[in-house]
Amino acid sequence: MASTRQIRNIALVGFMGTGKSSVGRMIADQLHFTFLDTDDLIESRAGKSITAIFAEEGEAAFRKMEAAVIAELAARKRTVISTGGGVAAGPGNLDSLREHALVVCLWASPEKIWERVRGQTHRPLLREADPLAKIRELLAAREPHYKQADVLLNTELRSVREVVQQVLHQFKLIRSKAR
Ligand code: S3P
């Protein structure tokens, strides 16, 4: 696998509320890369919100759309890809991303995630009586997948700017080694 990798892009994976979109936009600005969000792409293709897709078609249908979008990204160049929180756990998604992107996982504890997302309403998976328990359960189930990323960055004690600098550093390092 490693020998066939061509790292042209950066893919951010990780749980909801770890800052993938804000970090991704800043990295794209700095590198003059295109920014792409897999959830936005899914919504524009489906012509409806993620919440409506979950409600009307179910999570399994959403995961299929997600996997199709991930597979198409292999054609991208100079792109920073922010992915939905469940992408890393989808069969084949990480392998696919790794072919063309440095895969960076943004990490935070369940408590920190809850603190960041509690005011937001657009995440169907957290519409639960006990959202913090749901975050703990999903994070534990996904942890082995997230840990397969090339770089794992704890965002709890770092500002967005510091996380961006770390990702840029890792990207430049790996690209200079590939030359
Ligand atoms: C999901 C995370 C969401 C979105 C969907 C499912 C998940 O994306 O893809 O609600 O399974 O964790 P964000 O991580 O951008 O919130």
Question: Any key phrases for this structure?
Answer:
179 residues, alpha/beta, 8 helices, binds shikimate-3-phosphate
Task: Walk me through what this model shows.
The chain is an alpha/beta fold. It contains 8 helices and 5 strands. It has helices at residues 20-31, 38-46, 50-57, 59-72, 93-100, 110-117, 131-146, 160-178; strands at 9-14, 34-37, 79-82, 101-107, 151-154. α1 (20-31) packs across α8, α2 (38-46) crosses α4 (59-72) and α6 crosses α7. The two termini are 18 Å apart. The structure holds shikimate-3-phosphate.
SSE blueprint and pairings:
Blueprint: E1 9-14, H1 20-31, E2 34-37, H2 38-46, H3 50-57, H4 59-72, E3 79-82, H5 93-100, E4 101-107, H6 110-117, H7 131-146, E5 151-154, H8 160-178
Parallel strand pairs: 1-3, 1-4, 2-3, 4-5
Bound molecules: shikimate-3-phosphate.
What series of H and E elements makes up the topology?
EHEHHHEHEHHEH
**Tally of individual helices:** 8
Small molecules bound in the structure, each named once: shikimate-3-phosphate
The tally of beta strands, per DSSP, is 5
- The end-to-end distance, rounded to whole angstroms, is 18 Å
Query: Going across the major beta sheet, what is the strand order?
Result: 2-3-1-4-5
Shape, principal axes of CA atoms: globular
The proportion of residues forming helix, as a percent range, comes to 40-55%
Low-pLDDT segments, ≥5 res: none
* Biggest beta sheet attributes: 5 strands, parallel
C-alpha Rg (nearest Å):
16 Å
